[in-house]
Amino acid sequence: MQMTPAKTKLLNAALRIVRTNGYEATSVDELCRDAGVTKGAFFHHFKSKEDLAVAAAGYWNEVTGKLFAAAPYHDYEDPLDQLIAYIDFRATLLDGRSIPEATCLLGTMVQETYESNPAIRAACFGGITSHAETIADIIRAAKARHAPKATWSAESLALHTQAVIQGGFILAKAKDDLALARDSILHLRRYVELLFHHAKED
Amino acid sequence: MQMTPAKTKLLNAALRIVRTNGYEATSVDELCRDAGVTKGAFFHHFKSKEDLAVAAAGYWNEVTGKLFAAAPYHDYEDPLDQLIAYIDFRATLLDGRSIPEATCLLGTMVQETYESNPAIRAACFGGITSHAETIADIIRAAKARHAPKATWSAESLALHTQAVIQGGFILAKAKDDLALARDSILHLRRYVELLFHHAKED
DNA sequence: GACAACATACCGACTGGTTGGTACGCATAT
DNA sequence: ATATGCGTACCAACCAGTCGGTATGTTGTC
To answer: Cα–Cα distance between B88 and B192 in angstroms, integer?
Structure first.
């Protein structure tokens, strides 16, 4: 999608500011100031603040989609290796980043808007589940090869990976330390290893 | 702590409304309307909206502290049984509740305030870690008895339980379905079982 | 036990600043 | 010429917080 400069600048500003201060605490004026455009430009491209949030969720999916598509975890032949490498990749995404830079726009926005703003909630849900689905594909393949008789489902485990990552972000925000998010991802890695290790023993 | 009726009503209103709409989207006027008190009463008891949020976090700890202290998971002799029962108890806390009723005030508030409001962030951190510490005590005992040589720490696993629960809430909010939170808690249960099952084999 | 002095709990009109959103003007490109 | 992209000026609603005031204790003094 071709985008006009002001629109792109506004969306990038939204990713940064909303992840830092949340959706409600982010004002249209601040967004415009940060993007270096005026309010006229804002309401030319977005019919409301809510509309911007929905567009930002879509933009987030675009940006992170490319990031994950280009990530090295795809290079492994064994899907279980891919899964472990994906988890490790999620951990490396915390390195050298501040908390607002490392955390997820969708998880942040949905907390504030799930009850009051169905459109934003749905956009966040779509983004999270579409990413989880790509992980579920990997898990499905890993399960078929290494744990065909396991009782858990690939979809459920994929969503769990996202839950752990999102939950890790919350703890990290609370302590102001991304190490807590890293620790939880490490537990997740161990869980996946134990799950498949256990299945092989049967 | 003895509390005046208006103050208690405001704190109870805060627990409900903030969990529903978030901190920023909750106005002082709405809080007063819901509590059935006036603005004068609000600012008599709290010197600012931020002050109310900090007090609400403390109040949340009181209320949930009693809930967990009276919960049945303490009745087991074996600390590992206690831990599993705690996890199951967390799952039952979702039953028959709406999402705002089931979710955690601290996790919701800290997402919005971690960068812009250190006092609220610290209050949320204190509440989460003090609860996690009670779980860490159980895990420490379970580890001493069943997995003395395990490499993971009780504190880290305790925080991970909280991360999974918080992350489950985010997914539940995104899908508007608490089943997702339940699923993640089930994965957490399996993780703990595998962790100790694995340790016993060594 | 009566009365003054003071504290606590609460009321609700008001304020100055901020909010999301609108109306409209103008330049450029087709 | 007309649609698109953006700037300027503005608005009504709402926001957190203030302030003068009342009603109801509580405490100390004689």
So the answer is: 12
Mean pLDDT of A56-66: 95
Residue of B nearest to A160 (CA): B184
* A4: closest CA of chain B, how far (Å): 30
Task: Write out which nucleotides of chain C lie closer than 7 A to a protein Cβ.
Answer: 8-14, 18-25
Q: How far apart are CA A50 and CA B18, in angstroms?
A: 20
Report the chain B residue with the minimal C-alpha distance to residue A112: B22
In chain B, DSSP finds a helix count (H) and a strand count (E) of: 10, 0
Question: Which CATH topology does B5-201 take?
Answer: Tetracycline Repressor; domain 2 (1.10.357)
Dihedral of the alpha carbons of B163, B164, B165, B169, in degrees to the nearest 10:
100
What's the pLDDT band for A1 if we cut at 50, 70, 90? very low
Query: Is residue A110 scored above 90 in pLDDT?
Result: yes
> Which strand D bases fall within 7 angstroms of a protein CB?
4-10, 14-21
Q: Establish, for the pair of chains A and B, how many residue pairs have beta carbons separated by less than 8 Å.
A: 167
List Cα–Cα distances, A198 to A171, A191, B7, B81, B198, in angstroms: 29, 10, 53, 21, 9
**Are residues A86 and A65 in contact, defined by beta-carbon separation less than 8 angstroms?**
no
| A residues 109-138 lying closer than 8 A (beta carbon) to B | 110-116, 121, 124-125, 128-129
Each domain of chain B, given as residue ranges in start order, spans 5-201
- Give contacts of B 164-183 with A, CB under 8 A: 164-168, 170-171, 173-176, 180-181, 183
Whether A66 and chain B come into contact, CB under 8 Å, resolves to no
- Please tell me the total number of residues recorded for chain A in this structure: 202
Question: Left, alpha or beta for A176 (phi > 0: left; psi -120 to 50: alpha)?
Answer: left
Dist. CA A186–CA B71, nearest whole Å = 30
AA letter at B104: C
Q: Is the pLDDT assigned to residue B167 strictly greater than 80?
A: yes
